[in-house]
Amino acid sequence: METDDGTELVRSGMQGERMLVSGGLLYFAATDDSAGLELWKSYGTPDGTVRVKDINPGMGDGITSNIVDFGGDLYFGADDGINGSEPWKSDGTDEGTVLLRHINDNGDSFAEHFTVSGGTLYFSAFDETNGGELWKSDGTPGGTMLVEDIRTGPLWSSIHGLVDVGGTLFFSADDGINGREWWVSDGTLAGTMLVRDINPGGSN
Questions:
Q1: pLDDT the model gives residue 203
Q2: Which domains does the chain have, with CATH numbers?
Q3: Considering the entire predicted model, what is its pTM?
């Protein structure tokens, strides 16, 4: 039962958001008077609430997307002030919080919309060859790759609304022909397809 006596401030002087539980700890993005939006963790006590890593040193924001648990590690978009916004992973320690893969060599990949489906991590990201598209990862740099160039060439397919339904990924995308429609993917090229052109010739 919740009581007034059992409700207390864990730590003051900070603003927190994007919370999730992993490995029995609360993780969240927060900013305080010495750093921008960064990854924090908490055991539920003031002394046990600490910043995991100052990814973008100083007052620049490190965390740039949502945060998800995949295989016991955390995955999210982050900007270290050098490589731009890219996919990162963390085991909850400073030294274990690292760039997963530098996707766009010439700037931000804008990695975001991290979602786990069917044992695979999915997210959207941009590179100058394929534009903004659907990517997947097994948690390793070599296993982080483009699923499909839905809108062929460097244009964005505007990936949004990633959601897992029974182990299958659904999302909205614009292939440049059918407008924004619902797509499905099992992580393979052959298994990534338009569900239905709900508004033929238009945009949804």
A1: 53
A2: 15-162 (2.130.10.120)
A3: 0.89
